[in-house]
């Protein structure tokens, strides 16, 4: 499995134009509609279960929780418009590891372990990372759209122009990576 690097992340110049945090902002994803959001901490188990179902063995709930605690901005969920009790269903998610120089060195040396990344390799919240590692994406049927909207939801003052690294854990992931220009 190879790791791919994209030199420039796609993001907007200046302030975000789309109201991603607004409950009225809806993304049409094929024949369904989803809304982009930052997950609640109690949704992490749902994210890990979805990840295991669609990707296979990945980071544990404990590791996912530790990454979320280190920087909640690492996750975006796509909520379906139909209701699942009191909130909309998680239809998919995107997760990113924002790496400091140590994390980049691990990637370059081939010692980076995506299933259990060192927290000391992650950049602090509100600090521009040295690189972004696309940790996981589950967005069956709207992967390319999910990547675009997730990327645009991040603060351009921190993430614009930051190199993006990724690796594919599935054939669908490899197709998406190639389609996105890595």
Mean pLDDT across all amino acids = 76
Q: H/E order of the elements?
A: EEEHHEEHEHHEH
- The helicity comes to 25-40%
How far is the N terminus from the C terminus?
A: 14 Å
Structural class: alpha+beta
Tell the overall outline: globular
Low-pLDDT regions? 1-21
The largest sheet has its strands arranged as 1-7-6-5-4-3-2
- How would a textbook summarize the main sheet? 7 strands, mixed
Regarding quaternary structure, what we see is single chain
- Integer-rounded radius of gyration: 15 Å
| Strand fraction | 25-35%
Tell me the number of strands: 7
Layout of helices and strands, plus pairs?
Blueprint: E1 3-6, E2 27-29, E3 32-37, H1 44-54, H2 61-70, E4 75-84, E5 87-99, H3 101-109, E6 131-138, H4 143-152, H5 156-159, E7 164-167, H6 171-179
Parallel strand pairs: 6-7
Antiparallel strand pairs: 1-7, 2-3, 3-4, 4-5, 5-6
Main attributes of the structure:
globular, 182 residues, alpha+beta, 29% helix, 6 helices
Description of the structure:
The structure is a single chain. The protein has 182 residues and is of the alpha+beta class.
Short note summarizing the structure:
The chain has 182 residues and is α+β, with helices and mostly antiparallel strands.
């Amino acid at each position: 499995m190879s790791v791919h690097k994209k030199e420039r992340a796609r993001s907007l110049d200046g302030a975000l134009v789309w109201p991603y945090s607004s409950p009225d902002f809806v993304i049409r994803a094929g024949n369904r509609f989803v809304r982009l959001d930052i997950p609640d901490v109690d949704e992490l188990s749902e994210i890990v279960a979805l990840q295991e179902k669609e990707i296979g063995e990945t980071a544990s709930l404990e590791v996912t929780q530790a990454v979320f605690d280190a920087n909640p901005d690492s996750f975006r969920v796509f909520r379906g418009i139909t209701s699942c009790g009191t909130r909309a269903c998680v239809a998919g998610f995107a997760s990113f590891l924002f790496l400091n120089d140590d994390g980049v060195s691990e990637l370059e040396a081939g010692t980076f372990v995506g299933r259990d990344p060192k927290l000391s390799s992650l950049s602090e919240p509100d600090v521009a990372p040295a690189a972004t590692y696309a940790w996981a994406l589950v967005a069956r049927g709207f992967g390319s759209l999910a990547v675009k909207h997730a990327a645009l939801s991040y603060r351009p003052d921190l993430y614009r122009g930051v190199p993006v690294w990724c690796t594919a854990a599935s054939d669908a992931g490899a197709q998406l990576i190639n389609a996105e220009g890595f």
